[in-house]
From TrEMBL:
Binding sites annotated in the UniProt record for Mg(2+): E247
GO cellular component, one term: cytosol
SMART domains (UniProt xref): ALAD (SM01004)
Protein source organism: Halocalculus aciditolerans
Pathways per UniProt: Porphyrin-containing compound metabolism; protoporphyrin-IX biosynthesis; coproporphyrinogen-III from 5-aminolevulinate: step 1/4
Positions annotated to bind 5-aminolevulinate 2: S288, Y327
Protein name (record): Delta-aminolevulinic acid dehydratase
Annotated residues for binding of Zn(2+): C117, C119, C127
Active-site residues, record numbering mapped to chain: K209, K262
């Protein structure tokens, strides 16, 4: 009964680190930053402990806090001063993201990514131009109308996303990250960036974005919940795995420089599949609900927050992610 192979031999201090296959470092991480044009002082985000919405003139200070932890990259989200039918404040040159990015890039060396979407900017909270059926249902206040099966016009939305991405690049964004799940968005944005002279601005495509209930806290934070219906006809069905490869391959063909899988932890199989099917860098988005649930359990004393946060990120790296967008970035970087 004597085992011939003893994997325990390599688990002792000294050798353990030498044979470790994966690691997380601050340089793998990107922190989401919320800039809110309606505020004149910082406001805590209740469901995301430790995160705040900051006014535009605090954006630089917020990014300096991030840099002080060793994390060098941020993803900027904006909450505009006003919303309208098409989300026109998303591409305004004096919009909240544009102003914040201009200030951040002028004052810091942070690598600045921007989320390119319309849901925080439209009154109806959808990520594009409504169909006429959906528009009617919305005006009638029909929360559960049939229109929710087809809410957003794909092709009319492309032009608006392209304008938004170009306005971010013009403000100095280092990278743009389209998250609207509009078919053809990467190609449309690449073409528009090139035409505007931004050939060197790369695209991180939210290629594989599921219609997930793990986005709840974010939708409070960024005020981007749909006013009616849901996002089922544009975000992916959580049941699907092969479809993720179609999405990732299409985005690479259209010119994505890197592709993202979102959420992260519940979709590690998909991170692995995508890693094996494309040759560009793969990102995972450790989303708001993943952050909130670990915080809630830790608050009850049921989990060790620092340990589970690090283990979560390590698991995403092990699954094949090269970089991770995470609300834990600053805490983990400080602990490392
Ligand atoms: C869309 C966007 C969302 C998130 C990132 N970009 C919300 C959504 O699709 O509903 C969610 C991120 C998170 O939950 O942390 N602008």
């Amino acid at each position: 009964m004597t085992p011939t192979r003893r994997p325990r031999r390599l688990r002792r201090d000294g050798i353990r680190e030498l044979v470790s296959e994966t690691s997380v470092s601050a340089s793998d991480l990107v922190v989401p930053v919320f800039v809110d044009a309606t505020l004149d002082e910082r406001q805590a985000i209740e469901s995301m402990p430790g995160h705040e919405r900051v006014p535009v003139d605090e954006a630089v200070a917020r990014v300096e806090e991030v840099l002080a932890t060793g994390v060098e990259s941020v993803m900027v989200f904006g909450i505009p001063e006003s919303k309208d039918e098409t989300g026109s404040r998303a591409w305004a040159s004096d919009g909240v993201v544009q102003e914040a990015v201009r200030a951040i890039t002028a004052a810091t060396d942070a690598y600045v990514m921007t989320d390119v979407c319309l849901c925080e900017y439209t009154e109806h909270g959808h990520c594009g131009v409504l169909t006429s059926e959906a528009h009617e249902a919305w005006e009638d206040g029909a929360a559960d109308s049939d229109a929710e099966s087809l809410t957003v016009r794909n092709d009319e939305t492309l032009e608006l996303l392209a304008r938004t991405a170009v306005s971010h690049a013009a403000a100095g964004a280092d990278m743009v990250a389209p998250s609207a799940m509009t078919d053809g968005q990467v190609g449309a944005i690449r073409g528009a960036l090139d035409d505007a002279g931004h050939q060197d601005v790369p695209i991180l495509a939210y290629a594989v974005k599921y219609e997930s209930s793990f986005y709840g806290p974010f939708r409070d934070a960024a005020d981007g919940a749909p006013a009616f219906g849901d996002r089922r006809h544009y975000q992916m069905d959580p049941a699907n795995r092969r479809e993720a490869l179609v999405e990732a391959e299409l985005d690479v063909e259209e010119g994505a420089d890197a592709v993202m899988v979102k959420p992260g932890l519940p979709y590690l199989d998909v991170v692995r599949d995508v890693r094996e099917s494309v040759d560009v860098p793969v990102a995972a988005y450790n989303v708001s609900g993943e952050y909130a649930m670990l915080h809630a359990a830790a608050e009850k004393g049921w989990l060790d927050l620092e340990a589970v946060a690090l283990e979560s990120l390590l698991s995403m790296k092990r699954a094949g992610a090269d970089l991770i967008v995470t609300y834990f970035a600053e805490d983990v970087a400080e602990a490392l």
